[in-house]
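Narrative of activities, Objective 1.

The group set out to show that a structural description can be obtained from nothing but a protein's sequence at a throughput compatible with the screening campaign. Below is one input-output pair from the validation batch, recorded exactly as produced.
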Amino acid sequence: MVSIVNMKYDNMMRMTKHLKEKNFYLEDSVELIFDFSSLNFIEPAGAIILLSTIDRLKEDDIAHKLESIESLNRDAISYGETMGIFQKLGLSDARSFSRGPNYIAPAKIVLTELFDSLQSQSKTIETYYDEISSDIVTKMLKDFGRDSEEEVKNLFEFVVREMIRNIFDHSQTKQFYYGSQFYPATNSVEVAIADLGVGLVKTVPFDIEESWFDQPTDEDAIKKAMIPGLSALSNHAYAPEDYKNSGYGLTLVRRIVEKTNGYFSIASGNKAITYNLSEESVEDCDITGTLIRMRINLENLNNISFEEILEEAKKEASSKGYNDSPSSASKRLKSQMSKKL
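Output recorded for this entry:
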């Protein structure tokens, strides 16, 4: 029995570790049961981890059961139904809302359906990056009462767009999840994006010397992906030149989030690393693909110099012998921010 008490990032990561340690992904394992009778809290990243875990169990034909929520009278259950989480799990047919006063509910995007839709509308994938990041940011800043501040909007959109673009560039996934939540008490936003792809260890390029004696680990891959200028193996057939990855996306996002005194987490395979200004913490987990979560303090976005962050990243890239020229999209944001100063 797995009791879901807090559907938060840390709790759900520990759940994935527990499932692996108890061998629940083996075909002859004891039936796995998920119980929600003690559920107290839901956050976007936690909900997305649970939804993607259930997807994995279904895909691997692993026996599992989700206990009914019908008789449960809990605020968290009602909130989960309002966002459609329990409907996605097949536990409720109540009316749900894809967005509310402070949230965008976890949404599942199937790439074949997305590309068919874009083709029918004569739209390109980079247009989708812009539209979805603008949608998330506009919603969150409106909730925050800061939707008129263009500098904040541009910076926040860059962060979200890079998170989403990373999935299309590297994951080789068939689908992905995203969701967000604004927390008025702390003036912060959590944005989470997860794919069910191959994971960073299979896409981040390692030198021959680095893999000569030992196979690179998931932790190695995450840390390597944070190095600016290290381009990952990508399919850019669909991307125009100015959107092609130069290996700066993740590191710029992390640095921006850190500068707001926020948290940036990236999990892939059996490791998860959370970065903030004071430390980086490494945890064990077990997920398919890659999950990125950021908790960003919106008030502090006003105090960030994107130009300064970009220059720091370029210097680090150059010192390590990697590409010191970010994508044109990154340079364009730098130009936009400079004009406002």
